[in-house]
Amino acid sequence: MAKKIFVVIPAYNESSNIEIVIKETKKYVKDVVVVDDGSSDNTAFISENAGADVLRHIVNMGKGAALKTGCDYAIMRGAEILIAIDADGQHEPKEISNFIKNINGSEVILGYRQLNDEMPFILKLGNRFISFTVKILYGLRLRDTQCGYRAFTSNAYKKIRWKVSDYSMESEMIANMGKYHVKYKEIPIKTIYSDKYKGTTVLDGIKIVFNMVLWKLRIKNSGD
Prior knowledge:
CATH architecture: Alpha-Beta Complex
Order of helices and strands: EHEHEHEHEHEHHEH
CATH class: Alpha Beta
Strand content: 15-25%
CATH superfamily: Spore Coat Polysaccharide Biosynthesis Protein SpsA, Chain A
CATH topology: Spore Coat Polysaccharide Biosynthesis Protein SpsA, Chain A
Strand order of the largest sheet: 3-2-1-4-6-5-7
Number of strands: 7
Number of helices: 8
Helix content: 40-55%
């Protein structure tokens, strides 16, 4: 019997990109949830017309909060597999089938961006440093800790569910993977860099590393 799969798309002011992302995504998965994170444009209206279930935050709360809202909703709707994809068109929906294929036998599938000249240097540097931090603190060898293209089972979501509301959620998810020894796999993805300044900044990276140290200390103090 086919598993019930939901794609969750956190979106903030993505009226120029969200329609094509939803329509391409629905070629592979029937249930698509868009969380409009307090947008001031027509993101919600366009998403509804494109056939997505739309949830709305009255104010902008951050990517982590938006993705968690969408995942919680999907779980209530009976989701067995959840796939997170960005709303800005950087992720190619056609790769969803690869995530679905690889989730068998794993709890979490992490997409990793292949290093090339299109990836901004600051992203390469920051990603390598955060990956090194993850290896030291949690013993996980990951190629790309910050890629938002991910899939996980409903049971895994209960373990990796994050508390932070911002871009740190990707790292908290990984910290929880290490804490609960979640079985994972990485698969390569193609990423389109339409705006090299969009996404995790240097300050975000510093905050992520700081938070990862705090999460590790809390794990030790809890006796895990």
